[in-house]
Amino acid sequence: MMVEKPNTLSHASLQREPTAEMRVLESADIFRGATEIMIRHDGVVYRMKITRQGKLILNK
Question: What global pTM score does this model have?
């Protein structure tokens, strides 16, 4: 039996305007024309990819 978890993040909270402490980066500036980049975080390398539909996927 599957039990659905309550949605703890409201959609509205994801749409907030950036605060003074929050930096906003444009994906075009990060990817620089590529569709895939590597990100090192805490010693682990992750791959971020732009899909054909224009969405971002982050894989370990």
Answer: 0.62
